[in-house]
């Protein structure tokens, strides 16, 4: 058998040709992922602020009302005390980390899709989606740890640098990684569900065919419902993460994730594990709709 190794005219080598295509796609995913992450944060941060306030408020003493009676009360008190800026307090850290995180996430995911697809625009099989998400989740879980402690504590301090200074002074560098276990428990299964639902809905709207021609509304619906499915699947672990991250360093109330889970359930029942669930869901749908729409539109405009 003879193998034709003649190079096509105008192509220096097969390696350089394939490398150029991959680098171009990676740059597009990087740009689109950054814009998507920024859109997600701008739309969703006020909801996240209220969610964390509700999650981290101490359990009320017997016979006394809680600090916030609900999401709207938390919004009202925040607006009275701090004005509209209070809803965006602490956005500096997540703006940097979420944009960078999504940039890397969508870049890796785009490259994985390109490797696994049988042809451009072809839907991935269930096994291919499971393989891709397993690899991407490792990246998600690792990247999410870096900014999680500072992001949740930002409202307590004057800003990102103030958060970092206090945390390192009180607990050392390891304090920046406080809440690592529940963060892992949230990110890995949660994002697997999010992207699984997003891709399944895209394929449903496209009739099982090429999804690249979908309009804005199908993309927004797929992204929004994917985001909602994230919180439906892992919300209690996010509550545990929040209470651990704002726990006192010198006199901690919780010895770990399991201890926090048990104490919250014992003091408040199952509903205690769903503090701030309303704002989380209210945030997730529009924030993820904006994120995925921005990503797909920017990615498509770049060719």
What do these coordinates show?
By secondary structure, the protein is an all-alpha fold. The chain has a single domain (16-301), classed as Mitochondrial carrier domain (Mitochondrial carrier fold), CATH 1.50.40.10. The chain is 70% helix and 0% strand. The protein has helices spanning 14-56, 71-82, 92-116, 126-153, 160-171, 180-205, 216-245, 257-268, 277-301. Helix 6 (180-205) packs antiparallel against helix 7 (216-245) and helix 7 crosses helix 9 (277-301). The longest helix has 43 residues, at 14-56. The protein is globular and about 60 Å long. The two termini are 39 Å apart.
Which strand-content bin applies to the residues? under 5%
Helicity, in percent?
over 70%
Please identify, by name, the CATH architecture. Alpha/alpha barrel
Biggest sheet overview:
none
H/E series = HHHHHHHHH
Q: Measured on Cα atoms, how large is the radius of gyration?
A: 22 Å
Average pLDDT taken over every residue: 74
**SS elements, strand count:** 0
Number of helices: 9
- Tell me the number of structural domains: 1
Cα distance, first to last residue? 39 Å
Assembly category: single chain
The fold-level CATH name is Mitochondrial carrier fold
CATH superfamily: Mitochondrial carrier domain
CATH class: Mainly Alpha
Strand and helix layout:
Blueprint: H1 14-56, H2 71-82, H3 92-116, H4 126-153, H5 160-171, H6 180-205, H7 216-245, H8 257-268, H9 277-301
Helix pairs in contact: 1-3, 1-9, 3-4, 4-6, 6-7, 7-9
What's this entry about, in short?
It is built from nine helices and no strands. By secondary structure, the protein is mostly helical.
């Amino acid at each position: 058998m003879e193998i034709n190794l003649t190079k096509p005219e105008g192509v220096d080598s097969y390696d350089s040709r394939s490398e150029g295509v991959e680098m171009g796609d990676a740059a597009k995913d990087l740009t689109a992922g950054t814009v998507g992450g920024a859109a997600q944060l701008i739309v969703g941060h006020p909801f996240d602020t209220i969610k964390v306030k509700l999650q981290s408020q101490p359990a009320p003493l017997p016979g006394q009302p809680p600090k916030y009676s609900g999401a709207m009360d938390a919004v009202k008190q925040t607006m009275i005390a701090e004005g509209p800026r209070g809803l965006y307090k602490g956005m500096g850290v997540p703006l940097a980390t979420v944009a960078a995180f999504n940039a890397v996430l969508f870049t890796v995911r785009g490259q994985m899709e390109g490797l696994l697809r049988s042809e451009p625009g072809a839907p991935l099989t269930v096994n291919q989606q499971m393989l891709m998400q397993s690899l991407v989740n490792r990246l998600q879980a690792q990247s999410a740890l870096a900014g999680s402690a500072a992001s949740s504590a930002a409202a307590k301090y004057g800003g990102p640098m103030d958060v970092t200074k206090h945390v390192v002074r009180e607990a050392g560098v390891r304090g920046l990684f406080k809440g690592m276990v529940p963060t892992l428990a949230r990110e890995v299964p949660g994002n697997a569900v999010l992207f699984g639902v997003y891709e399944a809905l895209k394929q449903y709207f496209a009739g099982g065919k090429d999804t690249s021609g979908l309009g804005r509304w199908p993309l927004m619906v797929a992204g929004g419902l994917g985001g909602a499915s994230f919180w439906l699947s892992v919300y209690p672990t996010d509550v545990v993460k929040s209470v651990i991250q704002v726990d006192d360093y010198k006199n901690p109330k919780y010895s770990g994730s399991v201890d926090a889970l048990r104490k919250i359930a014992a003091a408040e029942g199952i509903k205690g594990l769903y503090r701030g669930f309303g704002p989380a869901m209210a945030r997730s749908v529009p924030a993820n709709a904006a994120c995925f729409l921005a990503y797909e539109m920017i990615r498509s405009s770049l060719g």
